[in-house]
Prior knowledge:
A: 102 residues, mainly alpha, B: mainly alpha
Amino acid sequence: MLSLYHYLSLSALLFCIGIFGVLTRRNAIGILMAIELLFNAVNINFVAFARYIDPQGLTGQVFTLFVITVAAAEAAVGLAIIILIYRQHKGVEVDKVNIMKW
Amino acid sequence: MELSLENGTQTAIFYILSGLIVGSAFMVVSLKNIFHSALFLVLCFFSVAGIYILLSAEFVAAVQVLIYVGAITVLLIFAIMLTAQLYSPSIRQSNEQVIPGIIIVGTLLIVTLSVLRRTSWRISTQGIEGQSTVSIGKSLLTTYVLPFEVVSLVLIAALIGAIIIARKE
Lengths: 102, 169
């Protein structure tokens, strides 16, 4: 029998993999993809809570839609910035982009 | 609407989808070729949509497929193609922090799982009644109408901002 614990564990596992990606990727696009994994882990949490704790109100599902929208906005702006960085530095390795460090 | 599946079938589907999610997510963060990472990201998003259907959230699953699989992944692949030399496998893709990263992430996972294990949630005994799409639509246009409008403004502002940032001078 599936319980809330199963879904929350899956989400925790996905979140940890995403954190690992953010910490270890050199490519900025790879970091963005890992951030998308984090968003998905959070969304699984929201939907699981909506199903198991608040099945009448479905607040979690509504909030998930907002998270997905903001994630789309984040991806658009993030990729625009990455393309700009690529034009200026001829590469998007985040450890080489240190122009704001003195 | 509740899924009319036996408990055993649901559990089996859950474990298959979880394996797909965790495996493809691991591929996303560890593969050398960033383009292959993006393709595994598609698989991961699809499996997450399956999890949503298992949680009887059909509308969220449809939105997941449309926006994540349809839009965000295409954007990512476009960006990979535009920054052309990057997806050659010869470039080192991970930094020297892999070992500290594994330690940090392992600690985080252990702490989170033990906290989850000890928390007693107030589980509701009721299931989701009727179509969840209907109640989502109603609450989006009554209770949450202000956040709904604000988020559309955020989206349009972000998209215009992205165009202005990325255009040539």
